[in-house]
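Record filed here:
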Amino acid sequence: MLRLLLFLGIIIVTNTQGLTNVALNRPAEQSSVGWGGVASRAVDGNTNNRWNGKSCTHTSKTTGNWWKVSLDQEQYVDNVVITNRIDCCSNRIDGAKVYVGSGENWKECGTINYSGSDTIVTYCQKWGSEVKVTNDNSYLTLCEVQVMVREETPSE
């Protein structure tokens, strides 16, 4: 499937390879809110990765920070794409963990090893009705979280 994107007057053609973002505009919550950075900002469809763009979440500075989104049903999550903040503090995402699951049953997809990229892809290939990102080290700031599922889902 090809998708056309309009960015600053330039048309960009991308191949989404049969993937759909099932987190868009879904209910989201987080452990705390700092500076007005509510959880829903990460699933608003706006990938602006600067704080003044008002599209990034922000928790308070505590340990055990988390953010999660509830999907409309159990899904086979192929990967999770995180748009990281770039105007400040980008390395805070280092060590964050991505999970898929629900309730008390969570399966880890991976740990983020920050390498300077503003887009981080974590492959999951796991079933769940929620996706959670945790960070035990510092603030948790996410500018967009896309939960990607294939159009043709493998059987359980």
